[in-house]
Specification:
Arc Repressor Mutant, subunit A, 3 domains, globular, Nucleotidyltransferase, domain 5, five-stranded mixed beta sheet, binds zinc ion, alpha/beta, 391 residues
């Protein structure tokens, strides 16, 4: 799993990285040189200089496309997706989930290893096992990078997890602890930002439009992408939509505030509310079943949650003005999307044309989160190619 930096370096230049990033976001990863010049704003001479070593190293290929009219056939540049691969591991509450992606960010293999506990050593053992399982699938190719994603305040520069409430970790140097065992320095990233990066290269963000991705489930978070850049936040905190205060006299939150979105709209809060009248309820699936019977208390809990989420996403669209708002949901997608309470609260609180932002539902599997982590490894390799982040 070693990084082949010696191989990376000869192709490195900021222009080469810009070419790679542009092709990553293009359907089919195909473009003419002329179009590439328009999108990257590089001169044709600069495109030639950037592209030649990328073709030489096998990352790009040039192919003749169908001629337009009676003119000469136009040559197109294409990313050679299977030229390189990358590993991502997402740490869940019960599993480490790994994904192997190609140079285009497409999933090639996935693996899942159960966690015996959330103790640091146990979790990192599972991360290494899951990563190894997908690396075996990549053979004989060697992945060019590995990234780990998890929920919490993470410093992606140092690879340190400052605080992860669901793991109960404070100040854990994940990158340092894994470097020897993985044979490379892994990138460590917040899981929602990793998912946002995936949406940026493979979803609504591929054309450079600003968007916000809101994740709904056990916790509630948001990733923000403005003008093609995922917002990181100076202190590792950004997009904490789950802690916007939407009910000033609402329930106490673990963060110290009260009435946060999470206290009424996260899965545990919805479960707790429904259990007051239905103590037998065990899961969100049970909640949905009760909602299907038009149970009044269940519908009230879901409406309250929808209203909290709608108010919060209006606050975000008012501040950022995104083109898209992606609602990524692990369990309640069917109920939330199109929910009257969510929609009404959003429309009530969105200011002016902010409401033109299109809300897009996205069903999310845990493997998608792992793919997001792998895309972090991929994009950080592209940055290293440019020479900007080499140390
Ligand atoms: Zn809070």
């Amino acid at each position: 799993m070693s990084e082949e930096l010696a191989e990376d370096l000869p192709i490195g230049s900021p222009a080469a990285a810009r070419v790679l990033r542009t092709l990553l976001g293009e359907p089919g990863q195909v473009m003419t040189r002329e179009r590439l010049g328009q999108v990257t704003r590089l001169s044709s001479a600069a495109i030639t200089r950037a592209v030649r070593p990328l073709i030489g190293a096998g990352y790009l290929a040039e192919q003749a496309a169908a001629p337009r009219g009676r003119g000469r056939p136009v040559k197109q540049l294409q990313l050679v997706a299977d030229r390189a691969c990358f590993v991502g591991v997402k740490v869940e509450a019960t599993d480490a989930v790994a994904c192997l992606v190609d140079l285009a960010g497409q999933s090639l293999a996935e693996a899942r290893v159960g966690l015996a506990s959330t103790e640091v050593g146990e979790v990192l053992d599972a991360v290494v096992d899951a990563a190894r399982a997908v690396v075996e699938e990549a053979a004989p190719r060697v992945p060019l990078g590995t990234a780990i994603s998890l929920s919490g305040d993470v410093d992606a520069i140092t690879g340190r997890v400052h605080f992860s409430p669901f793991l109960g970790w404070r100040g854990v140097d994940v990158a340092d602890l894994l470097t020897e065992r993985l044979g490379c320095v892994p990138v460590v990233e917040n899981d929602v930002r990793a998912l946002t990066l995936l949406e940026q290269i493979a979803g609504v963000g591929r054309r450079g439009d600003s968007f916000v991705l809101v994740t709904l489930g056990t916790g509630i978070g948001a990733g923000i992408s403005v003008n093609g850049q995922v917002v990181e936040g100076t202190f590792g905190v950004a997009g904490e939509i789950g802690h916007l205060r939407v009910e000033p006299t609402g329930p106490q939150c673990y963060c110290g505030s009260q009435g946060c979105v999470e206290t009424v709209a996260a899965d545990p809060a919805i479960l707790a509310a429904v259990r007051r009248s239905h103590p037998e309820v065990e899961s969100i699936a049970d909640v949905l079943a009760l909602a299907g019977t038009e149970d009044v208390a269940t519908l009230a809990a879901l409406e309250r949650a929808g209203e909290a989420v709608g108010t919060a996403i209006a606050a975000v669209t008012n501040l950022i003005g995104p083109r898209w708002l992606v609602l990524a949901d692990e369990s309640l997608a069917q109920h939330r999307v199109g929910s009257t309470a969510l929609d009404a609260a959003y429309r009530r609180a969105a200011y002016g044309d902010a409401v033109r932002c299109e809300v897009v539902p996205r069903d999310m599997r845990t493997e998608d989160w792992a793919r997001g982590a792998a895309v972090v490894a991929l994009t950080s390799w592209v940055e290293r190619v440019s020479g900007r982040s080499l140390d």
